[in-house]
Specification:
The protein has about 140 residues and is an alpha+beta fold. The chain is built from two helices and eight strands.
Length: about 140
């Protein structure tokens, strides 16, 4: 009987310690949002987000923009989150790297703590190019 009495405090310590360890390694969550879901080829994609909790080691956030179908990388940004976890980046769609219509993937990585992604669509590449050449033509 004394053997079981000694095991109870040990089991309580193990279970209590497990709870403390789990709380100190809480999952990092990244939330993402863009100002719009559809852009033309003369816009600026504004990506805002938040990481929670903020890493005390000043880890940076890496944002990679991938072309439609994952065919290539059209932009990479690296930012530090603010103390409240907020961050934002901008991608100019008039760049030659954003020449194709389609769905572009914005992949966000916060050190090795978490990752998330969001997608946006670019449309009207032919119309935008046509409008630009038409507006630059001499007026009669």
């Amino acid at each position: 009987m004394n053997r079981y009495v000694a095991l109870v405090p040990i089991a309580i310590l193990i279970l209590g310690g497990t709870g403390l360890v789990s709380q100190s390694f809480a999952a990092t969550v990244i939330t993402l949002e863009t100002d719009r879901q559809v852009y033309d080829h003369a816009s600026t994609i504004i990506l805002t987000g938040n990481v929670d909790p903020v890493d005390p080691n000043d880890s940076s956030i890496t944002i990679m923009c991938k072309s439609p179908g994952g065919a290539g990388v059209c932009g990479i940004e690296q930012v530090q989150p603010k103390s409240n976890g907020d961050f934002s980046v901008f991608f100019n769609t008039s760049s030659s790297l954003f020449k194709d219509d389609g769905v572009y993937q914005l992949e966000v990585t916060y050190a090795s703590l978490a990752n998330a992604s969001i997608s946006v669509e670019l449309v009207d590449s032919i119309e935008t190019s046509y409008e630009e050449s038409e507006s630059s033509a001499p007026q009669m």
